[in-house]
Amino acid sequence: MTDDHRIEHPDVILCPGGPMLIRGDHLIEDADGLLHPTRRPVSALCRCGKSSTQPWCDGTHKVLPDRTRP
Length: 70
Prior knowledge:
Layout: E1 12-14, E2 20-23, E3 27-29, E4 35-37, E5 42-45
Antiparallel strand pairs: 1-2, 2-5, 3-4
């Protein structure tokens, strides 16, 4: 791959012990099958399963013991 074709910003970034960040326009399906369009340049999705704003991250992972973080 040449420098002209490098991806400058990946669409998905997994934060160690934290959320999954997605960049750009996506449709996110929640546990009930509802689709949620992303409306921000970067959106944070919960990976710990404890967020009160599923599927979005609300920072709850910060208060979980390290062993239970994704």
